[in-house]
Amino acid sequence: MPRYVSTEKAVRSFHKFTKPTIKKVFDRLREYIPQSLACESAGISQRTFEFWLEKGRADRDSGLENEHTQLVIDYTNLVCDNVRTQIAQITYGEKGWQARAWLLERLYRIFFGLDGPEIAKLREEIEEAKQLIAMRNAETMKRTKKRK
What we know:
It contains eight helices and no strands. By secondary structure, it is mainly α. The longest helix has about 30 residues, at about 115-145. It starts with 6 loop residues before the first helix and ends with a helix.
């Protein structure tokens, strides 16, 4: 369940929940404008937009279908389209693909950044392998000392 900061703020944020506001935010996001600036250009705060998304996710998880759940669907589709476009241009080696790869890494760091989940898992596995190697080296050293 989303947290409400205050009733007054919640009422104000719902008052601005209009198709023109959402369209303006989405148009900016399609241009890869950072979410905070896209929201500001539409006259809302990033927190308000995130509140709407939280509400939509909570409603969706409760089995409701309303304008907030539709917002979540549309937002997810928009982000997927942005990623798909960048990946296609990188895959086909179009001129400037390095810049597009950099953009993906910055915009969607959790998926494409060096600290993404796949990289974090690999780092964990490397650390485990290092520990295993160190243990085996220590055992080998002990056996060597016993032989002498």
